[in-house]
Design goal:
Layout: E1 6-7, E2 13-14, E3 16-20, H1 49-62, E4 67-71, H2 81-91, E5 96-101, H3 106-116, E6 120-124, H4 130-137, H5 142-155, E7 161-164, H6 175-185, E8 188-192, H7 211-219, E9 224-226, E10 237-241, E11 247-251, E12 264-267, E13 272-274, E14 283-284, H8 286-290, H9 295-307, H10 327-330
Parallel strand pairs: 3-4, 3-12, 4-5, 5-6, 6-7, 7-8, 8-11
Antiparallel strand pairs: 1-2, 9-10, 10-11, 12-13, 13-14
Length: 332
């Protein structure tokens, strides 16, 4: 079988596949969706377990994908998630498998996920203060997230990574506190600039807490020096904390874009290929799959989709338009 790389027109090759398993979520984070939630995808439009496993197999066996991360929505609310992980692991034994989750429910399944073949987890946690957590997520579930992180670490899903978004006037004063909390527990913290992917389309650049502010806040308490290892295609710029070995990362997608080194491609829960988080066009694999396309045709359609990837996300361009789909429907 000939391997065909997922190359775009700018010389980039996608080896990192993000697979959204659902657009549903059990939190209502203010920077993602409204309090009342969203209109979810009908079940019949969502890829079945068999379809997810097959498309991932096409990506890993025919298109050179070496890392698969399951996302959402919240992937742990997908029925049969552990079984999906196990089936993908059997189909792709050498691939790095991870999940991005809000951590709710992780304590119940961490050990099962290790047994299924998952390598590591990224857990979204923006604060360790109960009142701020409720304000940001509109749910009183901080204890569940903390328990999920501890269970993941104990089960061996490391290095456990924590993703945090700072919101001005809400938790932007808590960056050093969150870093200290993560360092004490051995978690790797990554701060992410808020991106224009909220369902409400309320994002405003002037209200965003940018990388420079995040680093300045951290440096009031910690000594930060740039990490020596090459960044490569990794989205996070890493800094040694107090000389290391612990690090903290900043993912400055807006103010320090890294589009030129991007190696990611995304598959939505309803089987659409997205070449960029901010793309306004998608390529439909689900219809072809359900119409009886073989793996070779599915791979060919995927390769064609990647050729149309834009040079960058274009957020700084005056003509930039936020994607129609919010982050919960795209999958991070």
């Amino acid at each position: 079988m000939q391997m065909i790389p997922l190359a775009d027109g700018y010389g980039r090759v996608a080896r990192d596949l993000r697979v959204s398993l659902t657009d549903r979520c059990n939190l209502r984070c203010t920077y993602c969706m409204p309090a009342e939630g969203l209109t979810w995808l009908p079940r019949e439009e969502q890829l079945s377990d068999d379809e997810v496993v097959r498309l991932v197999a096409v990506a890993t066996e025919r298109l050179g994908v070496t890392e698969v991360r399951f996302t959402g929505g919240e992937p742990l609310v997908r029925p049969g998630f552990v079984d999906i992980v196990a089936r993908v692991r059997r189909a792709a034994p050498e691939v790095e498998l991870s999940v991005t989750t809000n951590g709710i429910g992780l304590a119940r399944v961490a050990s099962a996920l290790v047994d299924a073949g998952l390598n590591r987890v990224n857990v979204s946690l923006d604060t360790v203060r109960q009142d701020t957590f409720v304000e940001l997520t509109r749910r009183d579930r901080l204890d569940d997230v903390v328990a999920g992180l501890a269970a993941a670490s104990a089960a061996g899903l490391g290095p456990v990574k924590v993703n945090a978004v700072l919101m001005r006037g809400v938790n932007d004063d808590q960056a050093p506190e969150l870093l200290a909390w993560c360092l004490e527990r051995g978690y790797s913290l990554r701060f992410i600039e808020q991106m224009p992917l909220d369902a409400q389309h309320g994002w405003a650049r002037e209200e965003m807490v940018v990388a420079e502010e995040i680093l300045a806040a951290l440096e009031e308490r910690f000594d930060l020096t740039p990490a020596h290892e090459p960044r490569g295609s990794a989205p996070a710029e890493l800094f040694l904390v107090d000389g290391g070995p612990a690090t903290v990362g900043v993912i400055a997608s807006v103010t320090r874009p890294f589009c030129g080194d991007c190696d990611r491609v995304r598959l939505t829960a309803d089987g659409q290929v997205r070449t960029c988080l901010f793309a306004r066009e998608e390529s439909d694999l689900r219809s072809a799959l359900r119409a009886g396309a073989d793996d070779e045709e599915l791979a060919s359609r995927w390769v064609t989709a990647m050729r149309g990837k834009a040079a960058g996300h274009g957020i700084d361009d005056p003509s930039f338009l936020q994607p129609t789909r919010p982050m919960s429907a795209i999958g991070g």
